[in-house]
Design brief:
This protein is of the alpha+beta class. The strands form ten sheets. Strands 5, 25, 26, 27, 28 and 29 form a six-stranded antiparallel beta sheet that branches. Strand 15 and strand 16 (about 180-185) form a beta hairpin. Helix 19 runs parallel beside helix 21. The protein starts with 7 loop residues before the first strand and ends in an 11-residue tail after the last helix.
Length: about 1000
């Protein structure tokens, strides 16, 4: 389902196993029990000025994961009662959808009606045409009660094929978007979606959701995969932007759609999503509970972000309007961020708040979702369980822990409001008649609370009543509140009743959000072929184009960004299009998103853009920020020319850069363009060096002056950024003198590692003087280099055949250790088609196998297989702790024992015992590049061994056992090299008995379980 805890971090390919344990054990009894509502409320700490009230508790609500208020004010609840493992084999599923009732009007729901039962892993629902659309068990269904008894009597499956691999990672948060489509977060596991509803167009083949979210149109049945990869949560902000989340990313804004990329498919865009709040290791939470995490590495960070919600109600303190709220159930809290405009997107203001918006001292509080209600309050859905983590993400020994389902008969709903604020009870303001008139709905569209606006908007979308257009059009006047004005624009557009004149008025509105939405609505009119319409640009109203052009000068960056997007197909229809767009970018020193949006509309005009930046920019570019934007923009345009155009256009770029008329171009601008063009050409297998000799004559004085200055910057410039840029640029410049410069820098240990590494990258593909000898010297250098340079030298050596053979031959001769190779290197070598390289690789692999060591490991594995690694009662981990302290703590740290010289092993509890044993007995089998052993011999004959902690051009620092460090000046070092092995010595089995080895591994596995905090049995 969600991030009801945490899951797989796809971009990193790592399991983010976060486990919250709740109990103190005393024999077989748990000292910590669930609290009643009154007791739990005392554990909740709120930000000042906000009050909290419980509105529902068990048994009225159990395991809630979502709520919804329909137009009649009824509170619907989705209960995932079969979490985490689902029904037993042969048993029926037990998830429910209920309708709650407050029988005495005191604000507390005291009874419920089961609307639908025997559901499997329900993740949420959305009111629709008197019933609800439900996401559950791999499908989307519509359910309705037609006979009025409060129970479903008609069900339709509309779509199926959503992934069902894990209850936490399923389709969820069905949301009616601002365009009248329903949006669905895919839950990270994707799926292959089919249309099931018979009156909708059937698909020729399923829609693949791998890494993508989904949307469908409730009237036409059209559906498609869309940008985004949400886990559990989705919210639209006041601008109409879609915000999603994953367990480690609390808020991500969707910046571009796939349709935007059709015009310029070769434009490099790494992601269509922008993090608007710190994520992963950059995030920081301040829980009050003693929450327990399986991974130490994620403590105090987001590990279960879910239910992202942009609050747009009217019952909380005014400062919280349009702020973002996110749950983290593993940290037992709800975090909030104020969002500020940051170019085309947003960014969180003061995200590291030492006091969370809402935090509990109890480890049972499990906020998993947030909603805004009819009274404007912020509602918190509290699953209230002992363990929220799904067993799939637990270490093996915890998959059957006895408290996994404790709390599966509990659940709470809370609502938050401004302290002292009088809240309205259900009245005509929160109850809509079934036959509500258009006038009544229009009144609701103008409400200050988003719930009323959303309900009215939904009713208009449901009805699709063209006769309501005249009354909706009355809202398009300057006195209408911006939120209502925007809704009127959207609804009139969906009814095909929005005129160009009305749209133009919206594009000129005083409010930026209105202008932004009017531009967005104009997209299909300005880009008919790009949005599925007919490719007839002659029917495009010139006034719309002119208004969009004017929006490029708008004072608000969001409006300018949207204008860039909607104009992406209009370059041929607009005089002076290129100067206008580039002026907007440069004057406002626009960020990456706006520059990318502007480049979507080039269509063969890339060279015109480049000429504009070269010849016209001086009249615009004044500030340092504008100069930086000009450099980045020129680099991106040049890259696109190199990647998307022919050689003739690439030659024209070079001719332009070194033309007499371009005398105003400075060194950095030319380098920015050459770097972009070179990388673009290389992406399609072309070389800029060969084009340079043709496009720029050797006698070109400006070119010669540029090269001269480039070499000066590379050799002497004290500005580190300019030096690096120069070294990056020379890779594209032919000449033996440049090759010799790079080789000299690489061999100069006095230079910073990043400078030498950049030289190695620039050297690739160049002819090296006396290449065999030089390659041999590079290979020889590996032993004496820092981890960074070792990796760079190996990468370089594997970039050509001769160097690869030299490197492997050195390993075969015992001069280097085969284990220098990282896994990526091994993959490259194993797939080589060169017979000589393949033979050397196979030979080296065979030599690394230690027959005696393999037998030793096999013997110990037999002993280990007979041991109980979870035998906490008999004290094996306690005995193992003493062995750890005596044998391992001089270099490793666990808890409060030991020092951190070698890698952090406190996460060993997620490892299998057999893996731990192998790592202990054969520490050289897989070595982290940063933990090789190094030996330094001084001119005085002293020998020092340790892990390389730091290296400068003038000194090295070794970290030794017991946490001690020694710093040696390079002038005092006679010999310095890696030993090619792990700093952890072999032979630990000689110091301890097999039984003690079992105890040690038991401690490594169970050190966090010893105190009974998390029960194993």
């Amino acid at each position: 389902m969600i991030s009801l805890s945490r899951c797989l971090l796809c971009s990193a390919g790592l399991f983010l196993t976060m486990l919250v344990g709740i109990f103190q054990m005393n024999a077989s009894l748990y000292a910590e029990k669930p609290l009643n509502v009154e007791g739990e409320q005392k554990t909740l700490v709120l930000t000042e000025g906000v009050s909290i009230q419980n509105i529902a508790r068990e048994p009225v609500v159990i395991d809630p994961v979502d709520i919804a208020f329909d137009e009649f004010g009824r509170l619907w609840v989705a209960e995932m009662r079969d979490y985490p493992n689902g029904p037993a084999e042969g048993a029926k599923p037990i998830s429910l959808i209920k309708i709650l009732k407050d029988s005495n009007g005191d604000g507390v729901y005291d009874s419920s009606t089961v609307f639908a039962d025997e559901l499997l892993f329900v993740t949420g629902m959305f009111p629709w045409k008197g019933g609800v659309i439900v996401t559950l068990s791999g499908k989307i269904e519509w359910m309705i009660d037609r006979d009025g008894d409060g129970k479903v009597d008609h069900r339709e499956t509309w779509l199926d094929g959503f992934a069902e691999k894990n209850p936490q990672l399923r389709a969820n948060h069905l949301t009616l978007g601002p365009d009248g489509w329903f949006y669905v977060a895919n839950g990270l596991r994707g799926g292959a979606v089919n249309v099931v509803r018979k009156d909708w167009p059937q698909l020729k083949e399923p829609i693949q959701l791998r890494g993508r979210d989904f949307r469908f149109h409730p009237q036409t049945g059209a559906c498609e995969a869309i940008a985004g990869n949400g886990q559990y949560g989705m919210s639209f902000d006041a601008w109409g932007n879609r915000i999603i989340c994953t367990n480690r990313n609390p808020a991500m804004q969707i910046m571009l759609q796939y349709r935007h990329l059709k015009q310029q498919p070769k434009l490099p865009i790494r992601s269509l999503i922008q993090d608007i709040s710190p994520s992963g290791v950059n995030s920081k939470l301040f829980p009050l509970s003693a929450n327990w995490t399986t991974s130490n590495l994620h403590a105090g960070q987001y590990s279960a972000a879910c239910g992202v919600h942009i609050y747009q109600g009217d019952a909380m303190p005014a400062k919280f309007l349009n702020r973002m709220f996110v749950c983290d159930p593993t940290a037992n809290l709800v975090h909030q961020d104020e969002l500020q405009i940051n170019g085309a997107s947003f960014s969180a203001v003061n995200p590291y708040q030492p006091k969370e918006f809402l935090a509990s001292r109890s480890e049972w509080f499990r906020a998993v979702n947030l909603r805004t209600g009819p009274d404007g309050c912020l509602y918190v859905i509290d699953m209230y369980r002992a363990v929220i983590e799904h067993p799939q993400f637990m270490p093996d020994e915890l998959k059957n822990r006895p408290d996994l389902t404790l709390g599966n008969d509990l659940g709470r709903l809370w609502k938050l409001s401004q302290t002292g604020k009088k809240l309205s009870r259900p009245t005509s303001e929160t109850i809509l008649p079934a036959n509500a008139s258009t006038s009544q709905l229009i009144q609701w569209l103008q409400h200050d609370n988003i719930w009323q606006r959303d309900v009215a908007y939904r009713k208009f979308v449901e009805r699709q009543d063209a006769s309501s257009a005249p009354e909706l059009a009355k809202l398009l006047n300057p006195q209408t509140k911006p939120a209502a004005y925007i809704l009127a624009l959207r609804l009139l557009d969906q009814l095909n009743a929005l005129s160009d004149k009305q749209l133009l008025a919206g594009m000129a509105h005083a409010d930026a959000k209105v202008r932004f939405n009017a531009l967005k609505i104009s997209d299909p009119r300005l880009n008919p072929s790009a949005t599925g319409g007919a490719a007839d640009s002659q029917k495009t109203n010139p006034a719309l184009i002119k208004s969009a052009i004017n929006a490029l000068r708008d004072k608000h960056p969001h409006v300018r960004y949207q204008a860039m997007l909607v104009l992406r197909t209009q370059a041929d229809n607009i005089p002076l299009f290129v100067p206008t767009v580039s002026s907007s970018i440069l004057k406002n020193h626009s960020g990456d998103w706006s520059r990318k949006a502007s480049l979507l509309g080039l269509h063969g005009k890339q060279l015109t853009y480049l000429h504009t930046l070269v010849y016209l920019a001086d009249s615009i570019v004044k500030t340092e920020e504008q100069k930086q934007t000009q450099r980045e923009y020129l680099n991106e345009i040049s890259y696109l020319i190199g990647r998307a155009s022919d050689d003739a256009q690439a030659k024209l770029v070079l001719t332009t850069l070194f033309a007499v008329e371009a005398a105003g171009l400075n060194q950095q601008l030319i380098s920015s363009a050459i770097l972009g063009l070179g990388d673009g050409l290389r992406s399609r297998g072309k070389s800029i060096a060969s084009l340079l000799t043709v496009a720029v004559p050797e006698e070109n004085a400006k070119f010669q002056q540029y090269i001269k200055q480039l070499l000066v910057d590379a050799k002497q410039n004290k500005n580190h950024e300019l030096k690096i840029q120069a070294l990056q640029t020379v890779r594209f410049i032919p000449g033996d003198n440049i090759t010799q410069l790079l080789v000299g820098f690489i061999k100069n240990h006095q230079l910073p590692a990043d400078v030498r590494a950049e030289c190695l990258k620039s050297l690739r593909g160049r002819a090296i003087p006396e290449s065999k000898k030089m390659i041999g010297e590079f290979v020889e250098m590996i032993r004496s280099e820092s981890p960074q340079m070792r990796r760079e030298l190996i990468d370089y050596s594997l970039s050509n055949k001769q160097a690869t053979i030299t490197l492997l031959s050195a390993m075969d001769a015992g001069e280097l250790n085969f284990r220098e190779f990282a896994s990526v290197h091994i993959r490259v070598l194993s797939r080589s088609k060169d017979k000589q390289i393949k033979a050397l690789y196979v030979k080296l692999q065979a030599k690394t196998k230690d027959t005696n060591l393999e037998k030793l490991i096999a013997d110990y594995l037999k002993i280990l297989s007979q041991a109980d690694m979870t035998d906490l009662e008999h004290g094996s981990p306690e005995r193992g702790r003493e062995i750890f302290k005596s044998q391992c703590s001089s270099c490793h740290r666990i808890g409060n024992d030991g020092v951190s010289v070698a890698p952090d092993i406190s996460d060993t509890r997620v490892k299998r015992p057999s893996d731990l044993l192998t790592n202990i007995l054969d520490p050289n089998r897989a070595i982290d590049n940063n933990y090789f052993s190094y030996t330094a011999v001084t001119t005085a004959g002293k020998v020092y061994t340790g892990v390389l902690a730091e290296e400068t051009p003038f000194a090295i620092t070794l970290k030794q056992a017991k946490g001690e460090t020694v710093t040696l000046q390079r002038d005092d070092i006679e010999e310095f090299a890696s030993d090619g092995v792990s700093f952890m010595p072999k032979g630990l089995e000689k110091n301890i008995t097999p039984k003690q080895m079992v105890d040690l591994i038991s401690y490594l596995k169970n050190w966090r379980y010893i105190n009974g905090k998390v029960p194993l049995k």
